[in-house]
Amino acid sequence: MHSILARFADCAFWMARYMERAENLARILDVNETFAQDRLRTEDWLPVVEINSDTSRLYAKYPTPTVADILAFYMVDNENPTSIISAVRMARENARMLRHLISTEMWTHLNIFYNELRDLSPADVRLSRLAAFCGTVKENSQTHVGIADGTTYRDEVWFFMQLGRFVERADQTTRLLDIKYSHLAPHTAEAGTPTDASQWNAVLRSAAGYHAFRRMHARGMRPDDVAGFLLFDDHFPRSVRHCVDRISELLAGLAVLHRRPRDERNAALVTLREAFGDGDIERVLNSGLHEFLDWAQLELNRLTGELGHSFFGAEDSTQQGQVS
Amino acid sequence: MTLFAVNGEGDAAYSAGSFYCEMVGRHGRPADHTQPIRTRLNGFPTSELVTRAGSAERELYNLGITFTLYSGATTTDRVLPFDLIPRVLSPQEWQTIETGVAQRVRALNLFLHDIYHDQHILNDGTVPRELVVGNPTFRPEMVGVDLPHMAYVNICGTDIVRDDRGDFVVLEDNCRTPSGVSYVIENRHMMLRAFPELTEDIRLRPVSNYGVVLKEAMLNMAPAGASDPQVVLLSPGSFNSAYFEHVFLAREMGVPLVEGRDLFVDEDDHVYMRTTAGAKQVDVIYRRLNDDFLDPEAFRPDSMLGVPGLMRSYRKGKVSLANGVGTGAADDKAVYAYVPRIIKYYLDQEPILPNVQTNICREADAMRFTMDHLEELVVKPVAEAGGYGITVGPVASREEIDACRDSLKADPANYISQPLVQLSVCPTLIGHQIEPRHVDLRPFAVTSDETWVLPGGLTRVALPKGSYVVNSSQGGGSKDTWVLA
């Protein structure tokens, strides 16, 4: 098996990450609309801004943001690096670098998808169109994954794409949970009320996990069950545990490809496997869900940094290729 | 009334005027080989052509088969306009072009080897020494360097036009990093998808094996002793206007598409690329980077695109570059005038493809003649590419002629002049009409131990009415080029 250029490994990782990010941003916007007490009120959209750490960026551009401003900021604002269009643009730019290593189908699909987003008119960027917009983004991200699965040669490009996808998905699942936490925090009195149950229901649905959850938990919608499911279930494809397991397998597979011993030096991976391998939701809730989610996000960042050192030539003084 | 006359019968809507037409020929010299194609085209209403052209263009855009246009600080991705009506060459016409191109490439490679070694052709004055050695395209670093198969120009694009008599003449040789071959192959794909009925039962020479032949040639160029040579394609990067072509060629050859930052030269003078599993040796580099940018240690020190130490490795024969360094000395517009003599000198043959008669303005007589006939001549700067800086006398305004005269006076040696060749035309879909537009032809020759010419080549078409400038940066489009089997 030929090794690919370090730069292309980096590009494959980030192409997949950005597509996964676009999908999850759409999921977050979608679920936030459901949570909003009054979806026309700016305050009800600020949790999205907080979990993306965009507060200063948003207010720099819109000193008094309206709901329409926030939606435009996340849907189609090319200057906002955390917008959906930026994620898709970055995915496309990385794909452009990789074009000779990926299928024509994959490139063409990304190209068409980006051009569609770019050509959206202001009339398309409205609250009443948000659900349809999020649906389109999710569908295109899933098409991308399907094309990848059906057309990618199983060499390193594939491994790094998968790594990028699962790292991003794990990170985004923690953010999705955090959204619920943010909405809940000022209204703790609501815990256990019908509103609360319906919000947990919405979190599950936004992660496409309602039916899987129902099969595991025949009745009820207990918050600790839902959070436990999204964090620790080992069969649900968007759970953090599942993603960490896949990352672990992928790194083991790469070690085989490179004919080197299984790489246990990735300290962040070791820590994450410990935390999620025998995760206990009671303990997490007692010591603070939000803090745990923050910690997991930092560990995932550390894992990415270590991948950079192992594979992407990040120790070089010259900044390697990926567009990020 | 039909679009084209068939068997010389009937009134035709299409007329090429006084020009030679690739589809119908000219009075006394009809293009009989296109008869079946004309018959078929007559069967399509123009509205049908318009519909199909629209979907072809959309498809090119979706596929990202685009080039990047720079205008000040802004860049735009553009589709090279594709015209559905093919340019068709007969087997006999193709044989002339194929043998003529191969002959030129052979002579130019011998010329390059000579000027970088014994310099016989300069010593005996067949080509003026100062024209070659005094030219910035001549690379003193290459003196005494031996290349595999003495092949300097591995990929050559020869710009050929047809005059009003219907004869082929060479406008220029492109021996550095000629581009456009990806469009030859993509245009064929597009043609077969958009217009399958037109090609049915007509046997065409295929173009799809270009990548295979190119890869084979690159492997042939590997330094002696390299077993299982590693070939890479070196691109300036994804913001280069020809990036799509670099992607295309890397895919077709199945080789990594690298940038300068992916490569380094070690203390052993070998070239390596940075992979996920460490450094891997590189043996052959198909570079789409000009000499100037290749190696900041040897050439432009400000180049961020190149590889420091690359020339050191190359001169020691530890890596091969295609095309070789210093090939610009063979396609310089001033050297062009001497190519017929160069062919005679090394091969003892008459040129199969003639040159356009060329006045070298560095010579006093030629300069005087040029100044006296500016309104009739095409004046070209010798150092420019892409059709920039050309003044076409017969269609130029008073002001353009005056500006040209001033430039000539300021630096005669920078210019050549030629009579305006009445380029042949080809029927082209313009809006909702089929109109004659001028075309040229750039066949691509691949050379290692021998030369192979891709059947056909890139037919570029000048879309503005009456325009002779076919360059994509200046309103040019392209057509599928058919060589009948």
Give an overview of the whole structure.
The complex is a heterodimer of chains A (324) and B (485). With 324 residues, chain A is mainly alpha-helical. Chain A has one domain. In chain A, 69% of the residues lie in helices and 0% in strands. Chain A is built from 15 helices and no strands. Chain A has helices at 6-35, 46-51, 55-61, 67-75, 84-98, 104-118, 127-151, 156-184, 194-206, 210-216, 223-232, 240-257, 267-277, 281-287, 289-311. The two termini of chain A are 28 Å apart. The model of chain A is unreliable at 316-321 (pLDDT under 50). Chain B has 485 residues and is α+β, with helices and mostly antiparallel strands. Helices cover 31% and strands 23% of the residues of chain B. Chain B is built from 16 helices and 24 strands. Chain B has helices at residues 35-42, 46-63, 91-115, 120-123, 129-133, 181-194, 196-199, 210-220, 243-253, 291-294, 310-315, 328-331, 333-336, 339-347, 364-372, 398-410, and strands at 25-26, 29-30, 66-71, 74-79, 82-89, 155-162, 168-174, 231-234, 257-258, 263-265, 271-275, 278-282, 284-287, 320-322, 359-360, 377-381, 391-392, 415-419, 425-430, 433-438, 444-447, 451-453, 459-462, 476-483. In chain B, the strands form 8 sheets. In chain B, strands 7-6-21-22 form a 4-stranded antiparallel β-sheet. A 4-stranded parallel β-sheet of chain B has the order 9-8-13-14. Chain B has a 4-stranded antiparallel β-sheet with strand order 15-18-16-17, covered by helices on one side. In chain B, β11 and β12 (278-282) form a beta hairpin. The longest helix of chain B has 25 residues, at 91-115. Chain B is globular.
Judging from the principal axes of the Cα atoms, what is the shape of chain B?
A: globular
Oligomer classification: heterodimer
> What profile does the largest beta sheet of chain B have?
4 strands, antiparallel
Number of strands of chain A: 0
* End-to-end Cα distance of chain A: 28 Å
The CATH topology annotation of one domain in chain B reads as Rossmann fold
Largest interface: A-B, 28 and 23 residues
What is the element string of chain A, with H for helices and E for strands?
HHHHHHHHHHHHHHH
Architecture of one domain in chain B, according to CATH? Answer: 3-Layer(aba) Sandwich
C-alpha Rg of chain A (nearest Å): 20 Å
The helicity of chain B comes to 25-40%
CATH class category of one domain in chain B: Alpha Beta
The number of helices of chain B is: 16
